[in-house]
Fold this protein.
Amino acid sequence: MRNSMYIVKTRPARLNSSFFRGAAALAWCYIFLFCLFFLAQQIPRSIQVMFLTSTVVLLLLWEAEYRYLKSVAKDLNSGAAGRILLIDLEEKPGTPEEFFTVLETYCQKSSISLEYVKKDIPATVRLDGRLHTVALTESYMYGGPGWSLEIQEIL
């Protein structure tokens, strides 16, 4: 009995089901609101008005956040220097040779022709005949720093 209580206490509560992620989570919100409005006949009028007002405010905030994120994404994706491709790496390449090996492996897997114009970090390369710069970038994530190759087309 003691061991089973230990397991129950140490396991974190998780909603790891696909029913609680992404669009499904939003659908659950709508199902909950529908049930709430269906049961609203039993609730006093003043509480009904509070729920309705809160729901309208929440929906307006969601719409405003969506429009804001859409405008930010449009600003970020319309850079003058072309599009950027980020390739996440497991760890930082220790030497320039490892950097070039990672780039060559990616190009082989993606069936992209690779030609070095300047073999340095950052590198200037031709990918399928188009000129690109390839740099090593660091970004901070939940688990600590993460490394990626940043491939940017030169217009």
In short: The two ends are 68 Å apart (CA to CA). Strands lie at 84-89, 114-118, 123-127, 130-141, 144-153. The mean pLDDT is 81. Helices lie at 2-10, 23-38, 45-77, 96-109.
